[in-house]
Design a protein that fits this description.
single chain; 23 helices
Length: 643
Amino acid sequence: MLNGELRSKVDQVWNAFWAGGIANPLEVIEQITYLLFMRGLDDIQTREENKANTLGRPLERVIFPKGVYRKDRHGKDVTYEQLRWSRLKNADPARMFELTAEHVFTFLREMGEDGTAHAEHMSGARFTIPTPGLLARVVDMLAEIPLEDRDTKGDLYEYMLSKIASAGQNGQFRTPRHIIRLMVELTAPTPNDTICDPASGTCGFLVVAGEYLRDNHKGLFRDTELNKHFHNSMFHGYDFDQTMLRIGSMNMQLHGVEAADIRYRDSLAQEHGDDAGAYSLILANPPFSGSLDYETTAADLLSIVKTKKTELLFMALFLKLLKPGGRAAVIVPSGILENDGSAFEKIRRNLVENFEICAIISLPHSTFKPYASVATSIIIFKNTGRTKNVLFFKIENDGFGSGADRREIPGSEIPSVIEQFKAHQLGNNIDKTKKTRSVDVDEIVGSRYDLSPAFYLSGYEYPKNVQTAAIGELFDVAIGNLPASQEEMGEFPFITSGSEIKKSEVFAWTGPAIVIPTVSSTGHGHASIKNIHYVEGKFSAATITAVLTPKRGVEILVKYVYYFLITHKDEVLVPQMRGATNVTLSLDRLKRIQVPVFNGKEEQASRIEALEIESQEIQRYETLRSAHQATFTQLLTKFRSEI
């Protein structure tokens, strides 16, 4: 971890950039990246010179040759030696600025021809620091940091990356470090792995995978071949944003990986014949939003799933790239797991039938704050054949609060998830709770390949030895007939999603019937149902509700089903709601919901009687609670007015 003094210096430089007119955090990091690269080049040459002097032989690699690089604006010679960090940092601010703007960055761009991926990323280098004074402050700050210490320079860069407080284009969000560590811990990289992130961004996943290997496989650096593999052929990252490529490549270098393969690639547009089945471990958090034209999408991905949606195309890409026997941990939006569209179901079917899904971990909505509040999950799967059973988790506390600042809080459930996942992988039974459950593949196939954690973790267990029937077998199900904003007038009850019953001039149904809201009663991305209505007589209903009327010839007491649904709505109805922003309950899903069917109307009537007594008790309690709450509020208001 960086100490407070070093953090303070970074903050001061950051503020200086801001005051100097550079407000884009990515541009700030990019400018610092160029200077770090220059310092790194000087360090490499210094090591080569020391090695050559010790061994008494010529330099094996020359970055800064002897002699003149070119002439400056005054006609004076500028030597390669003057471009070295060790010389540049001691120049006066005006000379430092002139050399950097007119010669150092030209030198960096020319280095793009030396063949290394990192140098290629520098071919588009632009110098945008506006004043000699700001440049001198940045150089002084970087000069004081002990970059020979891998942990310190890595922490420095991570601290700067944490300052990126705005979302990238096309739904790109920086993945929180603790979530990356969770995914790496669960996939446990080995020294023989070949690791890929096809949407690498700042290379956070690859960096943490490297740290995991350093901590858990220290012996790999004593093995010549494994050491060479680690530095040259283990890590692969693709991105089509040149700024991200520069930042990601520098991030890998500063974390001690000498020649990671970080390169330009439009992962969804280019064919993958050269790396299909090439990677034993895939770690990724691809863009969630956006769409492509079929003409610009790789044909080999469209052969897996024909779609324009980028989240589905990235899933197809992961399946394409994963080596037989390999494993992956990727973050996906909720739609991948639960959307009823044919393309979504096809990709889930492919995952279940041709790959082994190990676990699906639901993350808190606040995971990606301050960028967005979205429903996401981690899928962990292997290319080892058909799925057997899936371990579902729901994380509510990831160790950080739900506010935009995401402050650290106690009680993180992540250690428990890691422990239970590893136990499950060893074949141990996992106790079912409201946050954890192991689900057999036959149940998943029977649920039309639904992979929603909320669905399997609903908590409701149907009574044993009691027959069940689908709502669609017992009831005719239809959408309401009037807009919810309908002007209130007339003699017939008009049922909406609210608790109060309005009036209408027309009616569409004659009860008994059940009216269920089809749109969530709470905000963005959250599923909930507050009110369900039992109706007798003639009535109308809003188009944001579903109306259940008993089928002819079906022996069922409507009020019994109503009490079952109102009692278990959070366990039976709400988990069937779908949508990332506008959360709704489709008629198709509603029809598939099972209800217990006890023998005959007499048995149902006796249960209704017991449920009504219980309901009256609950209502009496709610009335008392409301009265007490009102009294308390009045007393509190009076107390505040008197102090």
